[in-house]
Design goal:
The structure holds 3 protein chains of 3 kinds.
Chain A: H1 2-33, H2 40-65, H3 73-89, H4 94-117, H5 123-142, E1 147-148, H6 152-159, E2 161-162, E3 166-167, H7 168-186, H8 188-198, H9 200-205, H10 210-236, E4 238-239, H11 247-257, H12 269-288, H13 293-327
Chain B: H1 3-8, H2 10-28, H3 36-61, H4 69-85, H5 90-113, H6 119-138, E1 143-144, H7 148-155, E2 157-158, E3 163-164, H8 165-183, H9 185-195, H10 197-202, H11 207-233, E4 235-236, H12 244-254, H13 266-285, H14 290-317
Antiparallel strand pairs in B: 1-4, 2-3
Helix pairs in contact in B: 2-13, 3-8, 3-9, 3-11, 3-12, 3-13, 4-5, 4-6, 4-11, 5-6, 5-11, 7-11, 8-9, 12-13, 12-14, 13-14
Chain C: E1 3-5, E2 14-16, E3 23-27, H1 34-41, E4 53-54, E5 57-58, H2 64-69, E6 72-75, H3 87-91, H4 106-119, H5 135-148, E7 153-157, H6 165-180, E8 184-188, H7 192-198, E9 201-206, E10 209-215, H8 221-229, H9 235-238, E11 249-258, E12 264-269, E13 273-278, H10 284-291, E14 297-304, E15 307-309, H11 314-320, E16 322-325, H12 329-333, H13 340-345, E17 353-354, E18 357-358, H14 360-373, H15 390-401, E19 410-414, H16 422-437, E20 441-445, H17 449-455, E21 458-463, E22 466-472, H18 478-485
Parallel strand pairs in C: 3-8, 3-9, 6-7, 7-8, 13-20, 13-21, 16-19, 19-20
Antiparallel strand pairs in C: 1-2, 4-5, 9-10, 11-12, 11-14, 14-15, 17-18, 21-22
């Protein structure tokens, strides 16, 4: 019995461990191909690229845990990145520009929440529509050209590195992840998110209002999307009209790879972190070992299928384990 | 059929909507909108959308969704162009591209039916893989097409340059699929499965098989759409029909194909497509900048959804 | 302390009282109204009439949540927990203790949970996810959750259905502890020995009405069963015109095993009606679904017309002449938002084609014949099925399987009279007998004992996925079948007779 219950316990946490092992293997493989893979510069590059998707993944991960999804978050990031650049270029102090941008992102999140909760649209189709709108707005206001941001203060956010290795955005992402981990595991609100994603009916039975949670998750996701946009604009010192295009998909991939159940109710930030680490070291590694550029797109697309298959296998094994527990008593 | 019934039907509402759109743009453009050449342009624009709507619409009737059609169609067109450049004759290249489209559809069907993925996420994944393969085939550059027959199929126009050949293809297909949906066992099965897959299975239908067929069909039609566009442009570029997929969905919803599955048809979809093309064209005619059109198409999708929501609420409260 | 519920649809003028510190057992056949009663208690349903007093105070629940707040917890068979959350979080869901920072006070949470666990003398690790616990332990967690909320009333719906012997002992100890605390325990179970071991009072329901109440120590198993059954079999069944000529063997099931049923053996002749009786969850539906190709078969043989068959899907079964009217008409039987015509013609679509195009005239004829034959009350065959009453919906399904293009040889009816009014029921019974006259073999599943006994020629009784007995109609009594259907000995398996 003890071995059985231990193995069941392992199943419930194992996707984190499995994916961590995969990430380590991936890193080691690239390292063995080219030891420079773990050189300071490359590590810095990987960390640098992790911040954008990472912050998006926090919001998306929270949504997925709560049983929702928002396909517009990449476009929200892209639009916010453009907005912050334009605000700064009109002379608004960069601090205020960031605050306004994040508030703007939150209000875009609110729009998603309204469509889903008030009009009852299926989340993916509503947010897909919004994605198209935002992407269009980006094109309209940028006329499809880059907007440089010649502001030294603003550039410091993305440009600062500690010990010349750890970029500030990476630290921001880490701090946020820790904060959200605390929220998820140590507040009543956090536990409510799991309950809504896991079993809406029983969440209601203990007095949780799933709609309220849903509103929060979308608004939160919008705000984080805006922050991600600010960061990528700062990192590049220029706002790109295409910055956020694959953001939503990357974030879903990272979250699901990191063990957030696609159907909601389980997962956490640590898993998300490993998911992002895996995605980014994988992409960086492919470039590093000279994997043909276009095949990289295929490989990254396949990663999502892989992540979902993993989710399927693990949740299948998990329900079989439960089933087994049930049946062994009959 | 009595007049009241007609006046209350969805098709009638759509026709009125179409008339309003046409009237508005005609006035705003001082009549330029109704020039024969412009009407041709509107029809020309329906071709790709129609083919995508047929595939996506039938999937929606059966209760599923496919977001990979743009990616699949673009990749398949690129493949056809690549094969022709490598010296394969046009017919074999087209056949290969159609088969490739069907294979991609089958891949979607496997993810949805065997791995139980939700169709939207499975097809999004497929879309990004297809996009990757497209980049591999094209090496990121467009491939020009010199095959005359291929370009003829996509680009020829008859009757004083007014009727595009590809329009005839898409119309014939719309009608054929419309007849099939309403009048054959397979068509009926799609509605039944969309209405209640469990009950259909216990009554002797095979929902899984239907799902496979629909995904493969949608993939092949997307490939055809991609190729018709490439033929018209005499080149296959990396954007291809990516953006048209969205319009396909919108047209289907606009035309009354409900998201939950089980209802709607090709008649409504056809008017939906017309409204959408007319609208897009009108925006160009009255000099709305290109980029706004992407915003508008998203808004149209959301309005179509809202209309669907409102009318279904009326239905249930009645 | 008293409660009373006069007059609810499924409950007719039921009044009784439950006292603190006592265990009240709620008994009755399937459909007697036990679950309705529990659902009213839990705030899922509202009573149309009558009132419910707790500690002398009138209660008026507007939602399940308000019932919980008022101090009533129902422990259902399916668990209401979040597998990914820990034991302590599930127990304290909705009322997690917080520290000064507003964060969850984990040490305190753990301490309070441990206190509960110790109180009930259990051995559960409070910080593991509930999903990793055994079913029994999950149930314990559910009970602790109810206790933690300070519920005055804790109701159990068949709590031992999926528990092993030693786990039941632990559960009973827990219930004893609740009783000592002065809680009202309401206990629904079909297992006689448990009732006698555990309960203080027994309330017997039948057809939504209160039959009687017993003090457990003053009654016997026999008296209890008689009180649960006691009803006259009306003329309905006497007047049925039955089939008298039974043909050769049509279907034979040999040692069939699936995920849900074990070692099933039975046979059916042409023109014969066999009944399947048993409690809800006995595996009858799963058995017929497996025969119909809808559920997977692990081992065993199905022999139909002398041939061994192996259906991959219902499609194959229907081709061979099988037909199934599923238990859940709306979810599994009908495509609700399509017309009567569309629903009738599904299995014969390929037979009404002319050069691939559906022949609508033939289809309409099919539907109108069905509507006439079964006297479906509808203004026309284009009516959506969702707009019909339950009895008429059932007739549409019957019409689907027995139209002239079908070659139905074996008809499986899973609870065909569920939710159907008395008049329509009698029509359906006669229809079933008419099928038999045509030489169709009928498998008739029903949880209403009187109708199985009244209609079927032979009755198989199932319990826990096994057949526990077979009786001929002439020998069948409700008491006899009920005791086969309920575990009346201390065993969880079953010994076939």
């Amino acid at each position: 019995m003890s071995i059985k219950s231990l193995s069941r316990k392992l199943l419930l946490v194992s996707n984190n461990i499995a994916i961590l092992l995969v990430a380590i293997v991936v890193i080691l493989v690239f390292y063995s191909q080219n030891p420079n893979f773990l050189h300071d510069d490359n590590i810095r590059n990987i960390m640098r690229s992790m911040a954008f998707v990472g912050i998006l993944t926090i919001g998306m991960g929270m949504l997925l845990i709560g049983g929702e999804v928002d396909l517009s978050s990449g476009a929200v990031a892209g639009l916010s990145g453009v907005l912050v650049a334009m605000l700064i270029n009109t002379g608004i102090p960069w601090g205020w520009a960031i605050v306004i941008t994040i508030a703007f992102g939150a209000s875009l999140g609110l729009i998603s929440a309204l469509l889903v909760n008030v009009l009852g649209f299926m989340h993916f189709i509503a947010t897909l529509g919004l994605m198209s709108v935002y992407q269009g707005v980006i094109l309209v206001i940028t006329r499809n050209v880059f907007i440089p941001v010649p502001n030294e203060g603003f550039r410091l956010i993305g440009g600062t590195s500690f010990g010349n290795i750890v970029p500030l955005p990476f630290i921001i992402m880490l701090v946020l992840m820790i904060a959200y981990t605390l929220v998820l595991s140590n507040t009543g609100f956090g536990r409510s998110v799991y309950m809504c994603g896991g079993n809406r009916k029983s969440a209601r039975l203990v007095g949780i209002k799933p709609k309220k949670i849903s509103y929060f998750l979308y608004i939160n996701n919008g705000a984080l999307g805006a922050l991600a946009g600010v960061i990528i604009t700062s990192q590049m010192a220029t706002a790109s009209p295409v910055a956020g295009q694959t953001g939503s998909i990357d974030a879903i991939t990272a979250a699901v790879l990191g063990g957030v159940a696609f159907k909601g109710g389980s997962g956490g930030m640590f898993g998300c972190f490993i998911g992002i680490l895996l995605i980014n070291s994988f992409s960086a590694g492919l470039t590093f070992v000279g994997f043909p550029q276009y095949w990289q797109i295929v490989a990254r697309g396949s990663l999502l299928v892989l992540a979902l298959c993993l989710d399927y296998v693990i949740s299948g094994a998990r329900s079989r384990a439960l089933e087994h527990a049930l049946r062994s008593h009959n | 059929m009595n007049i009241k019934k007609i006046a209350h039907s969805k098709i009638f509402t759509l026709l009125i909507l179409l008339a309003i759109v046409i009237a508005t743009f005609t006035i705003l453009s001082n009549g330029a909108f109704l020039q024969p050449r412009n009407i041709r342009n509107i029809f020309q624009a329906t071709v790709v959308v129609s083919l995508l709507t047929i595939g996506a619409g039938m999937l929606m009737i059966s209760g599923q969704i496919d977001l990979s059609l743009g990616g699949i169609g673009t990749m398949c067109a690129m493949m056809a162009a690549f094969l022709m450049r490598s010296g394969l004759p046009w017919h074999l290249s087209m056949l290969a591209a159609l088969v490739l489209g069907a294979i991609c559809g089958a891949f979607n069907a496997v993810l949805v039916n065997e791995f139980n993925f939700q169709s939207f996420i499975a097809t999004l994944a497929t879309a990004s893989i297809a996009q990757g393969f497209m980049a591999v085939i094209s090496q990121g550059r467009q491939i020009d097409i010199s095959d005359r027959t291929f370009n003829f199929i996509g680009g020829a126009r008859f009757w004083d340059d007014l009727i595009p050949f590809s329009l005839i293809i898409s119309l014939v297909l719309l009608v054929l699929y419309g007849i099939m949906l309403k009048n054959t066992k397979f068509g009926r099965s799609i509605y039944l499965v969309g209405g209640n897959a469990d009950a259909s299975r216990l009554a002797g239908l095979r929902p899984k098989r239907i799902s496979y067929l629909l995904f493969m069909n949608a993939g092949a039609l997307a490939a055809l759409a991609g190729m018709l566009l490439a033929g018209r442009m005499m080149t296959s570029n990396t954007v291809g029909i990516t953006n048209a997929q969205f319009q396909g969905l919108t047209a289907a919803i606009l035309g009354g194909i409900a998201f939950g599955g089980g209802s709607g048809g090709m008649g409504g979809a056809m008017i939906g497509i017309l409204i959408l093309s007319t609208f897009n064209n009108g925006m160009t005619m009255i000099n709305v900048p290109m980029h706004w059109q992407s915003v508008a198409s998203g808004l149209v999708l959301l309005s179509a959804l809202t209309a669907d929501f409102l009318s279904s609420r009326k239905r249930t409260s009645a | 302390m008293s409660k009373s519920f006069p007059g609810v649809k499924a409950l007719d003028n039921v009044s009784f009282r439950a006292d603190g510190g006592r265990v009240l057992a709620l008994m009755g056949e399937n459909g007697a109204g036990k679950s309705t009663l529990l659902k009213i208690l839990a705030g899922d349903y509202f009573a149309d009439e009558g009132e419910f007093l707790l500690n002398g105070i009138l209660q008026n629940f507007t939602s399940p949540y308000s019932a919980i707040m008022a101090g009533i917890s129902v422990v259902y068979q399916e668990r209401q927990m979040i597998p990914a959350l820990s034991v302590m979080e599930n127990i304290f869901a909705g009322a997690l203790p917080k520290n000064k920072l507003g964060l969850i006070d984990k040490p305190r949470l753990k301490k309070e949970t441990m206190a509960l666990i110790n109180k009930f003398e259990l051995s559960i690790d409070p910080s593991v996810p509930v999903g990793s616990l055994s079913v029994a332990h999950q149930q314990m967690v559910e009970i602790m959750k109810a206790y933690r909320r300070g519920s005055a009333v804790i109701a159990f719906d068949e709590p031992t259905a999926s528990l092993a012997e030693e786990e039941i002992t632990v559960l009973f100890k827990l219930i004893e502890a609740l009783k000592k605390e002065g809680k009202i325990v309401i206990y629904v179970s079909h297992r006689m020995p448990e009732i006698f071991e555990l309960s203080d009072d027994i309330v017997v329901l039948k057809d939504g009405a209160l039959v009687t109440t017993f003090i457990t120590s003053e009654t016997t198993v026999d008296e209890l069963i008689t009180s649960m059954v006691g009803r006259d079999i009306g003329d309905t069944y006497e007047n049925l015109s039955r089939n008298t000529e039974v043909g050769e063997t049509l279907l034979e099931i040999k040692n069939l095993v699936t995920h849900d049923v074990h070692n099933i053996d039975f046979s059916l002749k042409r023109g014969e009606i066999i009944g399947f009786a048993g409690l809800i969850g006995a595996g009858r539906t799963e058995l017929v679904r497996a025969i119909f190709g809808a559920n997977e078969i692990t081992s065993g043989e199905i022999i139909f017309e002398g041939q061994k068959i192996d259906f991959k899907s219902p499609f194959d079964a229907i081709k061979a002449g099988f037909a199934l009217c599923p238990e859940d008409r709306k979810e599994e039987g009908l495509v609700l938002y399509r017309s009567i015509t569309d629903n009738v013609s599904i299995p014969v679509l390929s037979k009404i084609r002319k050069a691939l195009i559906l022949d609508r005239k033939a289809e309409a004829k099919l539907a109108s014949t069905a509507v006439e034959k079964y006297a479906v009350k509808t203004p026309g065959i284009d009516k959506l099925v969702v707009e019909l009453s339950g009895g008429n919906q059932q007739k549409v399904i019957l019409g689907r399987w027995t139209n002239e293009l079908m070659n139905t040889k074996l008809l499986i009816l899973d609870e065909p009279t569920k939710g159907i009014d008395v008049g329509a029921k009698a029509e359906i019974y006669q229809t079933i007998c008419d099928f038999a006259k045509q030489g169709i073999g009928v498998i008739f599943i029903s949880s209403e004992l009187t109708e199985v006994i009244g209609v079927a020629d032979r009755i198989y009784v199932m319990r826990n996925g096994r057949i526990t007995g077979c009786v001929d109609r002439s020998d069948a009594t409700e008491e006899g079948i009920l005791s086969l259907a309920m575990a009346d000995k201390d065993e969880t398996g079953g010994d076939a007779q």
